[in-house]
Design goal:
By secondary structure, this protein is mostly helical. It contains 14 helices and eight strands. The chain is 62% helix and 8% strand.
Length: 415
């Protein structure tokens, strides 16, 4: 038998391969035929609505796979662009926080026309200057030539004292009763100024129709600083930044607006506890929405964030407080320490009022002469000094000056 040629052998192999492929295709067709028979058998037993539901289910499964693929692609794209987009939002928001408002830090120096006037301000045996310090709660420094320097950690007290002293210099009638009268008048003027400033602040950020008492509390921001940053400036900055972020993210703008406006209101409210707690309690008394109160409670992460609006208030507060030049001095602990010194003195029976001076090195205590005599006054001064020294970290020696003054006034009207 003759040997087969190579070409014939190759052709034979190809034919065998094709036969195998054809057999495989036949098997696949047979399998598909059986599957379709099963489907037809199943469909034939279904109603029209059931068949439609079955078809929709199959299409839905196919589309779900496509949707999942698209979502995954979008997630990957979002991860790549999220940081850049967040930076753009924050930068644009900070641009919206730029202000035209100039903070008026309370002036504590009053110029006088001549040195002779200092003698009249001091008065006979120092009675005028003593009456002025007692009425205003500030310390008066007369050592510097040509000026009178006023010292107090409470900026509202210092503003009242500055305005009162300027009026007394112009009035020239410097005596204890006149001092008390002018100080009282000035205190009412400053209260009016605080209401106007509170109203101005609220309107500047687009909040209207707030209760009068709440506006007066907001007005205290003008005379209050937080870590050296004026509260009006900080609140305006934060609110404008927060509003812009809320617009960008589609959050509730009004909640963010109110949350930013009131987030630090507890810093100008008297009471025990943190400014977060005091601020929330104040807003509850004025029936503010719960979402706004939560913004105040959560802006220092004292409790978990309950909404995107709370997160925005937190971010806006951080941006305003952390920007370069926002805070030039850490005076918060200093002010708290001086306030604590006064509170220690005031809790003793017979003490009418107390004022801390000289960075906490001196504490002046006003005694009710009807409740304590001279010996009891001396004893109280020692007790207060000991408690202040042991309770507070006040550097150096603490000097406690207890002032007990008795007045008898008699007047007769002319007929």
């Amino acid at each position: 038998m003759a040997a087969q040629s190579p070409d014939l052998i190759k052709l034979e192999k190809k034919l065998l391969e094709r036969e195998e492929n054809i057999e495989k295709e036949k098997e696949n067709l047979a399998r598909l035929k059986e599957e379709y028979k099963d489907k037809l058998s199943k469909i034939s037993s279904l109603t029209r609505d059931e068949a439609r539901q079955e078809l929709l289910k199959e299409v839905e499964q196919q589309e779900a796979k496509a949707a999942a693929r698209i979502i995954k692609e979008r997630e990957e794209e979002a991860k790549r662009t999220a940081d850049k987009k967040a930076q753009e939002i924050l930068i644009d928001s900070m641009r919206h926080g730029a202000l035209n408002y100039i903070a008026e830090y309370t002036v504590s120096v009053v110029k006088i026309p001549d040195e002779d006037l200092k003698g009249r301000i001091i008065g006979k045996e120092g009675r005028n200057i003593r009456a002025f310090e007692q009425a205003t709660g500030v310390d008066v420094d007369l050592d510097e030539e040509g000026v009178i320097r006023l010292s107090s950690f409470d900026q509202i007290r210092r503003e009242v004292a500055r305005r009162s002293l300027e009026k007394l210099i112009k009035d020239t009638r410097i005596q204890p009763f006149r001092i008390e009268e002018i100080v009282e008048q000035t205190r009412k003027e400053v209260e009016k100024i605080m209401f106007e400033e509170g109203e101005k602040l609220a309107h500047e950020v687009g909040v209207f129709n707030l209760p009068k008492d709440l506006l007066s509390i907001l007005g205290r921001f003008k005379f209050r600083t937080s870590y050296g940053q004026n509260l009006v400036v900080h609140t305006l900055e934060e609110t404008k930044i927060g509003i812009h972020i809320a617009h960008e993210l589609g959050a509730n703008v009004n909640i963010v607006r109110l949350g930013c406006l009131f987030h630090d209101v507890g810093k100008v409210v008297e009471g025990d506890g943190s400014h977060v707690k005091l601020g929330a309690e104040l807003l509850k008394r004025f029936s503010m929405p719960e979402e706004v109160i939560n913004c105040v409670l959560e802006h220092h992460e004292d409790k978990p964030f309950s909404s995107i609006e709370s997160v925005i208030v937190y971010i806006a507060d951080a941006i305003s407080g952390a920007r370069p030049g926002a805070r030039y001095e850490d005076v918060e602990e200093y002010a708290v320490r001086l306030k604590d010194m006064e509170e220690i003195a005031k809790k003793y029976e017979g003490v009418e009022d107390a004022y801390a001076f000289e960075a906490g090195r001196e504490l002046r205590v006003i005694i009710d002469p009807g409740k304590l005599d001279d010996s009891q006054t001396t004893l109280i001064a020692h007790k207060i000094r000991d408690e202040v020294s042991s309770s507070l970290a006040v550097p150096g020696e603490v000097k406690v000056t207890a002032i007990r003054e008795f007045r008898a006034i008699s007047s007769q009207s002319e007929n």
